[in-house]
Design a protein that fits this description.
By secondary structure, this protein is mainly β. The chain is built from two helices and 35 strands. The two termini are about 25 Å apart.
Length: about 500
């Protein structure tokens, strides 16, 4: 959540079923716990265009607030995650394709069941629910009696080792989903749509039903469709998921506004930043840094690469970066050394980066960044998204196509990139001190002819220095700036002649 921090362990439960109940067949009762059974008697023809027509019809009608979620108690966070889906009940296990699907129970913070279907040969059949699909700690076995359906699912594929199934995607909670690359651990999450993120009365659209296409036995991709609903809009999202060194999602979405929308956030994602050397912790902590992402990267439509280090501000704040037809943007984890964090359990050095690659021209708009103050590493206090300049109007069909790259940083600047930012103070002189370390690109040629293009809005730059860094193809920019306002917007890039040879470093300092 952005208007009131998302607990990363919660990821928002309470999924809405209101609009889909009249549109999707009922969940069939299971007759055998060994596999997610399907009932041919309630199968229905399936097409993406049919889903779009459903969403269009939903958006033409008033939003129906979902009924109160079932009250399911008796499980703590740790107890909930001790529940295991039995591997013998995996979807597609009997067909032996590359992919598997497993399901989550409706418990803890995810009490509301929702329809999930398998699509094969043009027919959608509901996946039947049975509590016997789950291994439940004995002292909590009675809790399962209240379960009526699944609250989400995960997809598996041999990501890291042949013959060993690993999670490659999880869909659970509102319109949240997540993935990762080879050798990594889960970190940040993506969202189907954000509405009013970082502002009061934020709206959280729900994925209210899912359709999983049965993958071919030798297939290299799996396709998931989701029906979305919220007070402001309805929509359909299709995800073509291709695992490899990175896991890549091709996303095709159609959104149908119920009303004129001006605070929409497309291709949204949420992450966590608590502290690092540039923004140290106010609390005593043995670790050097704690964050899932350390910077916002943008590749603008003009071809400029921007790097904005993330911060944990003293008060919530919003920033935006206007652009036209962006080439891409994302939240990146550049710190990759274990000792840059000093945490052997959380292994923040293994968290994925997430890059959005638009597949169409998105026109005018801005990348928005929300940074929220927090003292907990269990809070998602960072969000970014694309907000078009033109509003989405009631009755429109808004089509979006983009590609999500989960894994290592992709599409970074071929020129010098920032790998570390440090800040400090010269209290006697009344200055803020900064060092920005850059590496790569044209710096391999040395610093002859290299100049600093350094700007400070809201401050006066008193001194500056450019020095070679001991590593190859690296340099350090150091400078002192006297604040003249409560906020200073700092910008830096390196040039040789008229040519930029580094990405653009952007930093917002606040009192």
């Amino acid at each position: 959540m952005i208007s009131s921090l998302v607990n990363r362990r919660a990821a928002l439960g309470g999924l809405s079923l209101s609009a889909v109940l009249a549109l999707a067949p009922r969940l069939a009762s299971a007759t055998a716990p060994q596999t997610p059974a399907v009932d041919d008697a309630v199968s229905q023809p399936f097409s993406v265009e049919g889903l779009r027509e459903r969403a269009r019809a939903m958006a033409a009608a008033p939003y129906a607030k979902p009924p109160a979620a079932p009250s399911i108690t008796g499980l703590t966070y740790d107890e909930y995650f001790r529940i295991r889906f039995r591997s013998e009940a995996d979807l597609w296990k009997d067909r032996k394709p590359q992919f598997r699907a497993e399901f989550f129970p409706p418990a803890w913070l995810y009490p509301r069941p929702l329809p999930i279907f398998e699509v094969a040969a043009g027919l959608a059949r509901p996946i039947a629910f049975d509590p016997a699909m789950f291994d439940i700690p004995g002292e909590h076995a009675d809790v399962a009696k209240a379960w009526k359906g699944f609250s989400g699912f995960r997809l598996l594929w041999p990501l890291n080792e042949a013959g060993k199934m690993d999670e490659i995607a999880v869909f659970q909670g509102a319109s949240y989903f997540r993935s990762l690359g080879q050798g990594q651990r889960y970190g940040l999450s993506a969202r189907g749509l954000a509405i009013g993120a970082g502002e009061p009365n934020e709206e959280f659209p729900d994925f209210i039903a899912f359709w999983l296409e049965r993958p071919p036995i030798e297939g290299e991709a799996v396709v998931v469709h989701a029906l979305m609903d919220s007070p402001s809009c309805a929509g359909v999202y299709s995800f073509t998921i291709r695992p490899g060194e990175d896991v890549v999602f091709d996303v095709a979405a159609s959104v149908f506004p119920r009303t004129t929308m001006t605070k929409m956030g497309a291709a949204a994602m949420s992450s966590m930043f608590l502290f690092n050397v540039a923004d140290p912790s106010p609390l005593q902590d043995y670790r050097t840094a704690v964050h899932d992402s350390d910077g916002l990267a943008i590749w603008t439509g003009r071809g400029e690469h921007i790097w904005r280090p993330l911060q944990n501000p003293k008060a919530h704040r919003l920033s935006n970066f206007p652009d036209e037809n962006p080439k891409g943007f994302g939240l990146v984890q550049r710190a990759r050394g274990l000792e840059e964090f000093g945490d052997l359990q959380a292994r923040y050095d293994l968290r994925p980066s997430l890059w959005v690659e638009p597949l169409d021209a998105w026109g005018e708009g801005a990348v928005h960044l929300a940074e929220l103050a927090t003292t907990k590493e269990t809070d998602d206090n960072i969000a970014i998204f694309w907000r078009p300049k033109a509003p989405w109007k009631q009755g429109d069909q808004v089509d979006l196509r983009y590609r999500l790259h989960w894994g290592q940083e992709r599409f970074a600047s071929p020129d010098a990139r920032v790998f570390r930012t440090r800040t400090g103070a010269d209290a006697q002189a009344g200055l803020r001190l900064f060092t920005v370390d850059l590496q790569g690109g044209a710096l391999a040629e040395g610093l002859d002819g290299v100049a600093m293009d350094l700007q400070a809005t809201g401050g006066e730059i008193v001194w500056r220095d450019l020095s070679p860094y001991p590593d190859d193809a690296a340099a350090r920019v150091a400078f002192g700036v006297r604040p003249q306002a409560a906020n200073m917007d700092l910008t830096l890039r390196l040039t040789r002649g008229e040519q930029a040879i580094s990405e653009t470093w952007r930093y917002l300092w606040t009192v």
